[in-house]
Amino acid sequence: MASNPPSEASAADAQRQGGRAPGTQDAEGDRDAVAHRARGLTRPRAIVVVTGSELVRGERTDRNGPFLASEALRLGLEPARILIVGDNPHELEAALREGAEADACLVSGGLGPTHDDRTVEMVARALGRSLHVDDGLESQIEAVSRAAAERLQRPYADFQAGVTKQATIPDGAVSLGLAGTAPGLLVEHDAKVVVVLPGPPPELRRLWPNALETDAFRALLSRTQPPGRRVLRFFGVSESAVARALAEAGGDGGGVEATICARDFEIHVDLVVDPGAEERADALEAALLPPIERWLFSRDERPIEEHVLALLRARGLTLATAESETGGIVAARLTSIPGASDVFLGSVVAYANEVKQAALGVPAKLLEAHGAVSAEVAEAMALGARRRLGADVAVAVTGIAGPGGGTAEKPVGLVHLHAEGPDGGASRELTFPGDRDSIRARSAVMALHLVRRLLTRSRDEDA
What domains can be seen in the chain, in order of their start residue? Predict the structure, then answer.
């Protein structure tokens, strides 16, 4: 059976905005707990509360909720939901009251010095705690603020009110350290914990390990064991075919939660395995794979570009790209991996036909006869990149990303790919649905998988 996968990327699909109306969260929280027990799950529950009106308004994408949910699962907690709520105090308090019903409430955002940073105040209200100024914390924040005032050549008086505000914490709260002037906090209540972290993702991730080192969080984790996790990644097979294979294999249960997700144009099957359920997971995997194993290409979560780089290293080969429609996206993905320079030589972004001719040696007659978006030109681009950049392998992308430029013969979304290596080449013609961004993203992923197929020449995929 397919359900929402407990991964950082898929946790984002479980997000919802705002909190429940006051007076309803206790009953609904009880129902959640009953359902939790009915599924046979014994892991402590975690609820993530992400704050910020800019998130609710759609001005920014949340990265903290998926991270904290995936961390909760990694540690052996059961991520129940992610709540996204704005800075309205009533909505925020309602969301925090709901979150505080879980064994772990993980909160991000709203720790700044301005009037709309209300998280600490609302945490105190939700837990029925008073607030106080922590003198030691105030001294730490003051030192940071005085240094900033001196650097900016502004009077410290401009910062003083904010310093006091950020040093005001709920009774019983433990400081997790500072990120800039924002303190991370942990509050223990009724054998449960509320962790409050800054909103900027790098700052949150820097303070998060400090929460895990506290006695309260360690006590919580002593009540659980981290589950095992297995990942099966498929490319070239439909999500429905994978779902059918999973159902015929018996589906999840017996301590194994199996989930299916389309991710970066691949199909991922995640198996979350409770301690002691490894034999059941082995049996499920053995029954699942036979009808779809031909499309299995990975059992880990490394991105496709990292797989390509590893294959190149293993064979002692170098790679170059020639890109038109993708405008350098393939090269950007490759160079996002540290150390790519040992096998990736470079890229030619040949958007105009004149550049295709001058930089890649694509014959003018070929362009005139077939057009820039054609299998013939894609092949000539790959051959040119391989020759001009001295690479062992080259991949080329040319297409029509839209929204304009399409014709009846060559519609928007038409993409031609070609990869060329020492042992021959491989081509693909595809027509992608979607907008300009999604067509370009799909094209880049397909180009990388085409290189992977060329390098592996697997028994099931004719490269």
Answer: 8-221 (3.40.980.10), 228-298 (3.30.70.2860), 304-456 (3.90.950.20)
